[in-house]
Amino acid sequence: MATSIIRSRRATVLVVTTLLGALVLSGCTSGRTASWQKPGDPATGGDPAHPIKVAIDSPKPDAKNVVTSTEIVLELTGAKKTDVVLKSAGGKTIPGEFREDGKTWVPGQQLEYGTTYAVKVTGTNSQGAKATKESKFTTMNRSGQIMGAGLYLFDDETVGVGMPVVIEFTRPVTDRAAVERRLFVKSDPPVEGAWHWYSDSQVHYRPKDYWKPGTKISVRIAIGGMPFGQGWYGKRDRIARNVTVGDDVRMSVENKTKKMTITKNGNVIKTMPVSLGKPSMPSSSGNLVIMDKRSEMMFDSSTFGIPADSPGGYRTKVHYAMRLTWGGEFIHAAPWSVGDQGHRNVSHGCVNVSMDNARYIYNLVHVGDPVTVKHTEKHVGNGDGWTAWDMSWEDFKAGSALN
Range of 129's domain? Predict the structure, then answer.
């Protein structure tokens, strides 16, 4: 298919990715045009040569306890153009758009709980004749069992060319395909992209190739009111609007030479010496991205099993920390290892640079900028960080629940 979570600084989460799934209310025959109705009848458009059939299969007329993530499923015959108008009891019009099948209309926002909605569907054939169908339904009351999701994107944010869309769910997802059908990513310009499940609670989206600088991205994690099974429902939609891809900034760290090379829009703009992880705690090789940036951060060895007051332990404030892995590897300022940088590896797995160089990188990069580390003693584990680019496109696509 062509298409179109929690960053440590704060939690939130081209081409629409998928088609309608099993969580839409099951179709029913109520409200369809009767099979005996003649093409000249008003409900079929009044044009015997170009009959129109418009029916609302789901939600069925006057349905109660409809989930607030419902989609409008239609049966259409002979319609060249179809318009859907959805309004709440108070007269508020709900925006929305069709899926690629042309028969499933997705409201652009979670519907309100305990609210009656009116839907009007108008089909127009090639001759301009119209057929209309109207219906009403009432949504369910809010459930006491709700689960949420975190999104590592924020409105109006600028990100790097390697930025994946990362979502984390607060409970395991049992029906990945149904959830994936409710994950929407759009970009301008459009790209080919896919989702990849790293676990039952985390899924990432990336385009086939790095985003182009200047690309605009919008994301909707449309799980608000969605049934997840066993009485659990999605807490609310998570949305990120007007995300902009910045300049093409990439970092390449070569263990053989103990140097980092930085390029911007294809041109080398800086090289600098580095010190990587010592042999007993090597840095991870692989295609990574900057996951987070902190001007100051406390590093504590006890977080990975080495007491701070034991031999080899530490509890130290560091400056200009830029996370690369969940396991605790960062690019950061290390004035204590300047004499080793460019010559030998002495860190606990991080990429050490001088204070001035760390400041330079910190002021240059965005979350999502690619970092490639080469020729160390180990390779990054799958999912230890945002490793979407550390596999082939075919392998990444294979992690979609809709393949």
Answer: 42-59+68-139
